Every structure is written in C-alpha cells, then in structure tokens.
Amino acid sequence: MRISTTMQYTNSLSYIKNSNSKVDEKATKYNSGLKFQSAGEDPSGMASKVKYEGAIAAYKQYIEAGGIANNSLSEEETALSSMWDTLSSVHSRLQQCVNGSNDSSSLKALSAEIAQLRDHLFDLMNTQNTEGEYIFTGAQSDIETYTLTSTGKYVCQADGSTRGVVVAPSVKTQVSDSGLDIFENCKTAYSMTVDTSNSISEFVRSEITSYGTFNSLFEKYYSSATGANNTLTINLDGSGNFTLYAPDGTTVIDSGEVDSSTSINKIAVRGMEFTISDATATGDIKFSLDKPETENMLNILTDIVAVIDDESVSNVDKVAAITKCQVDVEIALAHYDSYRGQIGARQNAITNVLNANESLSAIKVESKANVSEVDAFEAASELIRAQNQLTVSRQIYSMLNKQSLFDFI
User: Fold this and answer.
1) Can you give the residue ranges of every domain in the chain?
2) Where is each Flagellin N-terminal domain found (predicted)?
C-alpha cells in the first residue's frame, strides 16, 4: 500500500472535521437539553415526546378551567351568602313587627327597612361577575336575572339553563345555577282556604297559628293527583263540640270543644284556628288544602310591606300575614342554604380533581423529560470529551503539517 503526503493531510483533515461535528452535536444537546431535534434522529422518541406534550397541554388546560370554575363558584357562593344574611335580617324585622308594643310609626319604620333589604336582595340576585355577566341568568348571561315591571312585580328572566366546565378528561363540573331554580321555584308556606259557600253561616274567619303542626296535616292529607279531593270538614254538633274529618268524610282526624272562654268563639285544631259567631252552631266548616305554590322573595316582601303599611288591615290580619311571611322567609333560607351546600361540594370536588391533575401533569412532564431530554452532567462530560478529541486532532494535524514522507527516506 502506498502512502502519500497528500493522503496524510486528507486523513488528518477528515479526522478534524469529524471531531468538529461531534463537538457541534454535543454542544447542541448540552445547550438545548434535548436528545434529538427531529424525528429523523429518533422516530420513536419523537413520537413519545409529541404524545406527552399533548397530554401536558391538556392537563394545563384542565387546570386553567378548574381555576375559572372555582372563581365562578366562589362568586356564586358569596352572593348566596349575602342573600342569606339579608333574609336573616328580614326575618328579624318581621319578628319585631308582631311585637304588640309597636305603634303605626314603628311599623312603618320596620316596613321601610324591610323594603330596603328587599332592594338589596334584588341587587344580589342580579350579581355580575368581572366580565359583566349576570351569574344567575343561565345561558343568556347578558340579561338581568330579575327586572321590576311597571306593575311593581319582580319578574325572573333566567332561562333555567346552567353552564359547565371540563376539569378532567371525564369530569365536567357545573359552575353556575339558574335563578329560576334558586329564587323563582322556591316554595312558599302551605295554606288552606275555607269554602264559604258550603260552610255554616256562623263562620267568621280562619287562620294558621302553628305552621309546624299544620304542615304535618297538609303533607299527610294533600294529594297532587288530578281531581283529588283535598277538602277537609269540621262538623259542629250544636253542643259546643267539633270533629275534624279527613277528605273521605269518615276518618276522624281530631275532635274537641269550641273555646268560648272569651267573647270570641274559637276552634283550635291541628295548627289552625277558626272563629265562629255562635259556639252552639250546627253544621260544617269545609276548607281545602291549597296547591303548594312557588314565589320569589322579592314579590313576597313587596306584598308584606304593603300589608304592614295598610292601616285598613286589622291587626289580627296583619299578624297572620306577617307570620306566614316569616315561614316563607324560613323556607327560602333553607332553600338558598341547600344551594350553598351544593356549591361547596362542587368546589371540594374541583379541588380534588385539580390536585390529581397537577400530579398527573408532573408525571407526564417527567416521562417526557426521560424520553427527550439529556442528563446535564452526562451532556457536559460528552461535550468536554468531544472538545478534547478535537484538540488532539488539531495537534496531530499541526505536527503532520511540519513533516513530509521525504523525512523518512
């Protein structure tokens, strides 16, 4: 084999080029921290990297969505909490209204305060988030939840829909509640109506004095079936005794004597009180259990303010109306509080999901690093090794540059 000077130079230059390429390659890996830059370098590695990057991006989106959901639920919970406080204040004012020591001016002052609390409740029901959306309206978030009509009635404009956010691959969380469900579909106190056309002429008036006892009677005997008989009967025997019959007309619910100890003759039975003009009257008092109703608190409070301010309404009727309104407020408080509980449960669920998402995202990040990223210390060592090889190759070339084959002849 013949060796020429040119061949020596060519081999040395080739060695320098290869060493220089290795230095560039190792420097790129060290500086970028990546094992490869293209799919051609490592097809399977690049496929795994893309897969992990997609999963990491998805979990990032889930975490952001969860944060938005938590903020929305916090706004709703805060608004409902303020409403609960406002209604609690209303309940206290109503309790003061039935105080027998109040004169007309005191009652008007209390009714004015109740009206102000109603207006505050109206504002809270129309709560907006930072984007200016009404949080209780549903899908049509640009429309006020409640509006006051020219007739003085408050009308709900919520559409009944809710919004949800996906916070995990298979988890969608509700982040809003419709005012139609919270405020408009809130039940009111049970009631009953005396049928004056089919009752004795001695009947004067009726009143529910104990809603707790009356509610038990109502829930046992009221039927929502179409055409159901919800009429109960009180029979008076003419001797001052009465008997309360169930809708079937034969089942005895209760019995007793007419209270005639005062100038007013009263029949007190199952949380109800019926006033008659003659304790020895004979015949029946028929009354129906009214269909349960729903109404928003804004209209309920407007009506009770009007009753309190109306001097033509007797004190007895005012007390009866205020007592019923107190029960309505208590029902609303419990109803609103149930939604607060639901919101709290959703927030806890979101927190747990977000914690899991962060853990899973961290695992994906680590897996991606194992596939596509180099070890910093290893990359530095390989770069130094490549630089040393380049230095040696340059030194050899320098030595060869000073020699020729004639030196060996």
Assistant:
1) 1-33+383-409, 55-131+324-359, 192-292
2) 3-140
